[in-house]
C-alpha cells in the first residue's frame, strides 16, 4: 500500500478518536459567584493574554474572549475572593494600551 494512504488512514483514526472523546466531555457550567466580565479589550487580545493577566490575582478556572465582535470576555476565578480581588486591581487599568472595565458578571435580565 501507498505510504500516503496509510498515513491518511492513521490520521483519520486519530480524528475519530478525538471526536468521540469530545462527545463524552460535558461542559461544566460557570460558577456565577466567581465569574468576572472584562470589557474594552483591544481586538487582537487573545485568551492566553487574559489568562496571564488574571493569573496574577489567583487561579483562573475558565476564560472566554469574544472574537466577532471582539473587545470583551469572561473569566472564572477559583474563588469569589480571588474574583473580587482581580476586579479591584484591574478595573480602570490599561491592557495593551486600552482602558478596561472589569466587574463581577451579572446575569442577563429575563425579558
Entry keywords:
single chain; 111 residues; alpha+beta; four-stranded antiparallel β-sheet; two-stranded antiparallel ribbon; 3 helices; 6 strands; 37% helix; elongated
Please provide the count of β strands. 6
Question: pLDDT under 50 segments (min length 5)?
Answer: none
User: Sheet bearing the most strands, described?
Assistant: 4 strands, antiparallel
Overall morphology: elongated
Q: For the record, give the distance between the C-alpha atoms at the N and C termini, rounded to a whole number.
A: 62 Å
Give the averaged pLDDT, no decimals.
86
- Tell me the strand order in the biggest sheet: 2-3-1-6
* Strand residue content: 25-35%
What string gives the helices and strands in order?
HEHEEHEEE
Share of residues in helices: 25-40%
Structural class: alpha+beta
Rg result: 19 Å
* Contiguous helical run count: 3
Task: Give a brief rundown of this model.
This protein is α+β, with helices and mostly antiparallel strands. Helix content is 37%, strand content 26%.
Amino acid at each position: 500500500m501507498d505510504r500516503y494512504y496509510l498515513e491518511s488512514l492513521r490520521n483519520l483514526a486519530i480524528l475519530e478518536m478525538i471526536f468521540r472523546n469530545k462527545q463524552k466531555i460535558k461542559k461544566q457550567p460557570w460558577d456565577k459567584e466567581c465569574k468576572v466580565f472584562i470589557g474594552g479589550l483591544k481586538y487582537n487580545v487573545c485568551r492566553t493574554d487574559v489568562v496571564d493577566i488574571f493569573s496574577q490575582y489567583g487561579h483562573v478556572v475558565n476564560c472566554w474572549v469574544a472574537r466577532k465582535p471582539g473587545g470583551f470576555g469572561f473569566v472564572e476565578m477559583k474563588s469569589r475572593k480571588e474574583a473580587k480581588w482581580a476586579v479591584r486591581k484591574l478595573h480602570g487599568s490599561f491592557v495593551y494600551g486600552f482602558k478596561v472595565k472589569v466587574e463581577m458578571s451579572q446575569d442577563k435580565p429575563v425579558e
